[in-house]
Amino acid sequence: MEFDSPDAFLAHVLWTFRSYLDTLVLVGGFAVRLYEIHPRAAPAAVRVLRTFDADLATPSGGIPLAGESLSALAEAAGFQLDFRGDHIPAVMKLVPKEAIGGAVGVDQYTVEFLTPMTGAPASRSGRAVMTSDIQAGVTAQRLRYLDLLLESPWRVSLAGLSGIPDATTTIEVRLPHPGFFIVQKILISEELNRQDKRSKDMAYVYQVVSLFRRELIALADDVRDQMNAIPAWRRWLERFRRLAGSLFGGPTAPGVTEAHTVLRAEMAGSGLDVPSPQMIHAGVSLFLKNF
Amino acid sequence: MREQEVRLPAEGLSHGLHLDFIMSREGRSFAVEVKVAREFADWVFQWMARPILALQAAHRLKSWEPILAIYVDSIDLRIVRRFKGQIALYAPNLWWLVADGHGSLVAHLPSGDEEEIGDLHSPRSGYASAKLSFGDLDQWLLKVLLFARPQAAGWGGPRGPIRNLAQLAKLAAVSPPLVYRWAAAMERSDYLAKRMGRVPVLANLDALLGEWRGRYRVSDNNPIPCSSVFGEHADESFPDEFLNRLRHLSDSAPPCALTGHQACRLYRLKHSDARSIHLYYSGEPSVLMEALQLVRSDNPVAPVVLLQPRHRRSVFGGVSRVDDVPVCDILQVYLDLYHLPDRGREQADFVHERILTPLIRSAVEPQDGI
């Protein structure tokens, strides 16, 4: 199973799980890729970061069967379950069969299910509870603040992608509300188990703000109102404001520097202008100032 | 002007507090002290202490904002710079202006800072005999006289009949003595004639425009090169997107007006595909930059250049809204284009041919019914 491009891989994943697409929300880097083709997005001036991980978010409490199970669909589509780590249940990824046993590379295509972290983050014995079962034999990694990505999702059709099989162009997939996407990326920046991904997350924040630059105030207002309506989310909103100030408070703030470093590396040799720290700070501030 | 020779009662002072006059402008009240000296030398600073104290007292008592106006025979720029430093140190809230007999002006006023220095080597025989300096006032009066007729295109400033200099003064909202002095300088330069002894009519307009072009560069304005916050200025759609942001600026945004190539697009006079954007602004640029999603750029050919006008009144006085975007008058656009490197001269010639040539032809004739 070989893919010509990350887009082709994504189309294959979404085609595989098409009977569950009313429940799942595509999050992570591929969500940013699809924001690019959303009708409400402005043309991207910065190349969207490449990703090889398809992250599918599910509500907590598991997913009811919709015909074939997730594991059966994955098996039939050439994926194999790959359990890693010593968590109980183990962290599960879906990888193309030929990749099993290989090194965990940065450019390896994978699928992962994610679910909101509800309840205690650790068991009574003190062991971290990192995963939960979403169907028989299928686990999802628990992630804090993921609830936000399931709220008021947007839909996008794959018809805007080129180089994917014709049959998959009819697929519609749910994406996080872009405002919640930014808020969640900033909130999880504090999580210890996300530090390796934080720089890329900061770059995603700038890219999403850039794509929806024509309606930043409306997006921020929408998110703020929804978060203010739920007591637990109000606390998250306070935390978000604090973190946003420290990450993007100026052109030399850590979030700005990390985003700039990632974008510079990604765009090296492309001939495109790399956004300066001043641009990143000013751009993200256009969204953050509304909170 | 509201009141001349103002005296405020003050305890312990038999004659009270004396001020030269009180004026109102845009809802604000100003107390003004006027001083006249032959020379503008360091010793003048000592002599200014009393009027400054009087203005500050008036501000405390009546909340009138203080303006110190100084008229000298000839401005010495070195002394002006020292004067600026002294005022900034001892009376930072003071508005002030220094004018001289050659038409030079240095000012720190609520409308902005101005520095227009004429030819310091010209004879000290007063403004009336001086040549046209193409300062803010000169430019403004020229534009009003040229565009005031009803059919003139590309103008958002005042319109109306001008049958004598007093009517020009009224229409341009400039005090008559200044208009008479300007007219004298214009006549000496052979750019103004008077029909029937009183009706002002522009003359030799091609030569006048040539002199104006020679004396002016768009770079004379204080430029801030900018790029878009999201780097989208490379996109085909950026000029349209930028114009859309201009359309939707809030009422609290600082005044601004488009010039150069993009102004020509709005005037339906686009001749080249040049994409540079030039925008005049007034006030605090950071507010406008945020609203327009811009950041300062080190790029010498930045896609957007904000311009703080050297001649504020002349630039903003003729602004009109075209397709809901504030745009400079067509003469300003022409002058700004003329020296722009991205096919500016070609575009300026096109504007001249389409708009200015017919306008000039009609301008050398007296206005309707005269």
Walk me through what this model shows.
The complex is a heterodimer of chains A (291) and B (370). Chain A has helices at residues 6-16, 29-35, 70-76, 147-150, 178-187, 198-211, 216-228, 231-248, 254-267, 277-288; strands at residues 25-27, 53-57, 79-84, 91-96, 110-116, 131-135, 138-143, 154-157, 172-175. Chain A is an alpha+beta fold and 291 residues long. Chain A has two domains: 1-176, no CATH class; 177-291. In chain A, the strands form two sheets. In chain A, strands 1, 2, 3, 4, 5, 6 and 7 form a seven-stranded mixed beta sheet that branches. Chain A has a two-stranded antiparallel ribbon with strand order 8-9. Chain A is globular, with a radius of gyration of 19 Å. Helices cover 37% and strands 25% of the residues of chain B. In chain B, strand 5 (95-100) and strand 6 (105-109) form a beta hairpin. Chain B has 370 residues and is of the alpha+beta class. Chain B contains 13 helices and 16 strands. Chain B folds into three domains: 3-125, no CATH class; 136-216, Winged helix-like DNA-binding domain superfamily/Winged helix DNA-binding domain (Arc Repressor Mutant, subunit A, Orthogonal Bundle), CATH 1.10.10; 218-357, 2-Layer Sandwich (Beta Polymerase, domain 2), CATH 3.30.460. The two termini of chain B are 33 Å apart. Chain B has helices spanning 43-47, 49-62, 77-90, 136-147, 165-172, 176-188, 205-215, 238-247, 260-266, 285-291, 312-317, 330-338, 344-363; strands at 3-10, 13-25, 28-37, 65-72, 95-100, 105-109, 112-116, 192-195, 199-202, 222-228, 256-259, 277-281, 294-296, 304-308, 320-322, 325-327. Chain B has a seven-stranded mixed beta sheet with strand order 1-2-3-4-5-6-7. Chain B has a five-stranded mixed beta sheet with strand order 11-12-14-10-13. The A-B interface holds A 42-43, 45-46, 209-210, 213-214, 272-273, 275-276, 278-279, 282-283, 286 and B 227-235, 237, 241, 289-290, 293-296.
